[in-house]
């Protein structure tokens, strides 16, 4: 086979891989944009696209040089970002604990930053001993870090893509998830969700004659009345027609928010699809939960304070992993398998 023919074959094979994965991504997005598999497919599209570019640029030394410079620049930016990320997470975690309650959930960005700083030191310490036990532990820790990084990348890509898709979703009703009252009043975080719901209705006026808003939330132990009632009053005070507000005042969890709201809308003859409004970090998981409950609803989010976002986003990532236990099991198998291979190679002979 001549070099020219070999180049054409390699380029066509790489192009076929790109088109096949792009087709799978399009199918998956049409089937359900809420699925986490979309993040996996986007990463595969990028992987195959880079392979295609490498196959094409291999034919020309000039293109190879340009490709190398671009990769060097991108790699440098990624390396710089990863080197600064642990420090930024630690600083954000300290700020989070100062401004919010001291809890494990609020300390996630701090713990994440510290783990990224400490893990390389632990690996160096283990490898210095040069024995099968420490070598196997080092291999397991490194594999666990790689698996966690890949899973987080899938989650981040999925949430970024989903946020763009959900903004254009059709809806016959908007469900607003509660976030707790402060001294019986709607706090800024919850007010932001309600304002986003009103904006979402305005954006969809051409889709339906009247879009109902469902403020959802029951009464907490430290609340004088149900969140849903306070949210409904807020909406009416801000110009929303009372006939277009259906208060759900029994829910205590996100799952109950969605289930009870969907039931209430069905009882009033409002058919799917629905739109869920929550905070931006929570929207993807709320959409996944609606998918699991069989509710045809997409979710959009309102902005939150910048310092609050990293820990909240990490909390959502952990929650998604708990809900996708198979991914955790596969990662665990990879860790154990790498430890076993390392032990076998270090003890052989």
TrEMBL record:
GO terms for cellular component: plasma membrane. Residues 173-318 form the DUF218 domain. GO terms for biological process: Gram-negative-bacterium-type cell wall biogenesis; peptidoglycan metabolic process. The keyword Glycoprotein does not apply. It comes from the Bacteria. Pfam families: DUF218. The chain crosses the membrane at residues 7-27, 39-62, 68-91, 103-127, 139-163, 326-346. Gene3D superfamilies: HUPs. InterPro entries: Cell_Envelope_Assoc, DUF218, Rossmann-like_a/b/a_fold. The keyword Transmembrane helix applies. Keywords: Membrane, Transmembrane, Transmembrane helix. This is YdcF family protein. It comes from Modestobacter versicolor. The lineage of its organism: Bacteria, Bacillati, Actinomycetota, Actinomycetes, Geodermatophilales.
């Amino acid at each position: 086979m001549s070099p020219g023919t070999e180049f054409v074959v390699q380029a066509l094979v790489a192009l076929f891989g790109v088109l096949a994965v792009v087709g799978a991504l399009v199918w998956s997005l049409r089937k359900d944009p809420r699925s986490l598999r979309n993040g996996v497919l986007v990463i595969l599209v990028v992987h195959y696209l880079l392979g295609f570019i490498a196959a094409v640029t291999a034919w020309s030394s000039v293109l190879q040089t340009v490709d190398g410079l671009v990769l060097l620049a991108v790699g440098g930016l990624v390396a710089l970002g990863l080197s600064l990320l642990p420090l930024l997470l630690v600083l954000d975690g300290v700020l989070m604990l100062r401004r919010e309650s001291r809890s494990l959930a609020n300390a996630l960005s701090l713990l994440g930053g510290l783990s990224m700083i400490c893990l390389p030191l632990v690996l160096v310490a283990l490898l210095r001993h040069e024995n099968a036990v420490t070598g196997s532990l080092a291999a397991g820790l490194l594999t666990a870090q790689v698996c966690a990084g890949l899973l987080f990348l899938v989650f981040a890509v999925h949430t970024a893509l989903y946020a763009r898709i959900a903004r254009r979703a059709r809806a016959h009703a908007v469900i607003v998830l509660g976030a707790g009252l402060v001294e019986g009043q709607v706090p800024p975080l919850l007010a932001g969700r309600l304002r986003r719901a009103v904006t979402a209705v305005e954006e969809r006026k051409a889709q339906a004659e009247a879009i109902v808003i469902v403020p959802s939330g029951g009464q907490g132990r430290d609340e004088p009345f149900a969140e849903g009632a306070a949210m409904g009053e807020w909406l009416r005070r801000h110009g929303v027609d009372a006939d277009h507000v259906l208060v759900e005042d029994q829910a205590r969890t996100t799952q109950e928010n969605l289930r009870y709201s969907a039931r209430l809308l069905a009882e009033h003859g409002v058919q799917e699809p629905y739109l869920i409004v929550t905070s931006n970090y929570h929207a993807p998981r709320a959409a996944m939960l609606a998918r699991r409950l069989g509710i045809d609803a997409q979710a959009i989010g309102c902005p939150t304070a910048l310092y609050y976002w990293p820990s909240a986003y990490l909390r959502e990532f952990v929650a998604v992993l708990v809900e996708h236990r198979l991914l955790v099991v596969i990662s665990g198998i990879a860790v154990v398998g790498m430890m076993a291979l390392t032990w076998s190679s270090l003890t052989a002979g």
